[in-house]
Amino acid sequence: MPLVLLIVVALASLLVAVGVGSVTISPQSLWSVLMGQGDPLYRTLIFELRLPRALAAFGTGGLLAVAGALMQVLLRNPLADPYVLGVSGGAAVAALAAMLVGLGGIAVSGSAFVGALVSTLLVFGLAHGTGSWTPTRLLLTGVVVAAGWGAMITFMLSVGPTEQLPGMLYWLMGDLAYSRGPWPALGLLAVTWLVLMPLARSLNVLARGPLQAAALGVAVRSLEGAVYVMASLLTAVAVTTAGSIAFIGLVVPHMLRLVWGNDQRVILPASILAGGTLLTLADTLARTLIAPEQLPVGVITALLGVPTFLYLLYRSR
Fold first, then answer.
1. Domains by residue range for the chain, with CATH
2. CA distance linking residue 295 with residue 305, whole number of Å
3. What is the tens place of the pLDDT at every residue in 197-211?
4. Which of 174, 190, 198, 274 is packed most tightly, with the most Cβ within 10 A?
5. 228 vs 217: CA distance, rounded Å
């Protein structure tokens, strides 16, 4: 029942995204276009501009939410998130470096994946040190590493070609206007669903702690390694699709757990649907709030995520 409700809400968010904008399309006109009729101008506006962008937003939001859910299970910490822990920053630095040397397409995505993986290993390695990591130590390490990536991004912007700066800045703030299409994100979402659902029971056990998981027969190291790689890959594809978007991976999984508990068989698919819905609606708001001008969608998600993060940090004392 929860998933059915989220599917209905997700479809409604996509309809809102294709119907609302600087040019509002009435429900009757929208229905005519979806049925293959209607004004040719509306068909062009929907199928070539709004629908690909809405699907890219949905795919990116789903990827970030699942990455956040995986990290929170792995670390048993509701404050874990690709943005907060510096994973998004590492992916952004690597992607920008690839752009500055003239690479594009798959090379940028591959660079972002390497950057996300390096950042993940760096944060966990520094937080572990010579002993065991704690949630507070991991969080502080992630914040410091994220600040370091931010400094590198600033340096790249300072030395980069002037003509590339506006696009790079909007991309870093999270902007779907420059997305290269929704299909990589949506395809990875489908693969993620197929891969993670058989692992949901093992993730439920892992959430109770590595010792209990090992005692119950879970291959802890292999599962943790798979989660590391999967979260890095999800973050990398999300960053290359829409730039660095904050707090989706923090807000969505935590709110779902508050409503439906901590069963990963529900939380993981629900994160895909709820994360995609949230970013789709946020991007629609970013397009229409000061239309015909557009805001970066990262501004909207940050306005939602910052107070939520502070509230969770307050509760975690």
1. 2-315 (1.10.3470.10)
2. 16
3. 888 888 888 887 777
4. 174
5. 20
